[in-house]
């Protein structure tokens, strides 16, 4: 089984996931900009993710998620979106604060809590429509 990723590595993996979109790939420059770091710092992170088998990253080439990377990043991203939506839709927190807080919380929240939030949001959405 894969070692647990640090919060920072989870954020880099999520950045690759969010930025890769339909093309399935992303450039190092875009990851560095998204994370607000230098290309050198982003490249170091990509090397770590590649060593863990989560991305393929050849020098001066596009970055692609592996199947394992796609699965892991999808879980992280889903947590982020559920938490963020709970904050904005239920608690009426502004988008920026909700996004920042969701990013911090997604790394430490249990799967049970995320599932409860998701289930609550389903009921909340049904009951909110008039």
User: What is the number of beta strands?
Assistant: 3
First CA to last CA: what distance? Answer: 47 Å
Largest sheet strand order: 1-3-2
Q: Overall pLDDT, averaged?
A: 91
- In total, how many domains does the architecture comprise? 2
Major pleated sheet: 3 strands, antiparallel
Give the number of helices: 6
User: Could you give me the name of the CATH homologous superfamily of the largest domain?
Assistant: Winged helix-like DNA-binding domain superfamily/Winged helix DNA-binding domain
* Portion in strands: 5-15%
Helical percentage: 55-70%
GO molecular function: DNA binding; DNA-binding transcription factor activity; protein dimerization activity; transition metal ion binding
Subcellular location: Cytoplasm
Organism: Ruminiclostridium cellobioparum subsp. termitidis CT1112
Subunit structure: Homodimer.
